Amino acid sequence: MEKNPSTKSVARYGVRIKGLLGLAFVLANLSWLSGCGTLANGRGWGQDATPFPSLSRLGTAALNAAIEPGTLLPLAGAIFFQVDKFDKRVSTWASKRTPIFGSQRTAFTTSDYIEGISEAAYGITVVATPSGDNPGEWAWAKAKGLSVGVAAIALTEATVDFMEKETDRVRPNNKDDLSFPSAHAARASVCTTLASRNLRYISMPDGARTCLRVGFTSLTLASAWSRVEAKMHYPSDVLVGMALGHFFGAFLNDAFLGAEEPKFWFGVQSSNKDLVVSLNWLF
Q: What does pTM read for this prediction?
């Protein structure tokens, strides 16, 4: 029997709290989780966040976000799933067999649980980044840095909401016409992208950083697949959601946070006869 809206809301809230507390317990007990100190350049994380980045930085950040694997690979996958009705065939198989989660109901519930863990992961990395030793400066830097992440999440959700209403794609279970793209996959993706970006500034062993990044990617993939097994979305829906979340997370973080210089940038040199456009990168 279908639960009433209030019961669903309470259950969903409880699942998110469990995810937050579980991840916080694990990470808080790691000795390297500390938000004091500063970055290598002597500044605090979030201290240089700005609402008015230069046009050059905006363009570079947008390009970087668009060409990163986290954006390109899911989009390529979504296109692939359009071949020979592969999208619908995989959706039918996954929702009937439910090979990972065992049932559509479990997959549906787990998608909320994973979403909560993804949000918690981002929040904990915000606290863990070094933002200075002065309490007042620390709090102000955290607030500025967090505002960038909140804006990325809000922009992702607004874009997904707009696309869902404009595309009118019916869900695999015929419940409504808000199938494309997946909001769950997009939210998980933007949160884990932001969390992964924050790991750059947290002092920890390289192996631990790599493991966490793999874990964040796994969260996004699990969130996406759970929606397919729950018969709420087609594979292309969740893949586009993942791409949107990664793009907005990477773009806003790199453009507005101001914690480091971009990895890629364009250079233009002209002479009387030639115009040379180059793509440069740091490694």
A: 0.82
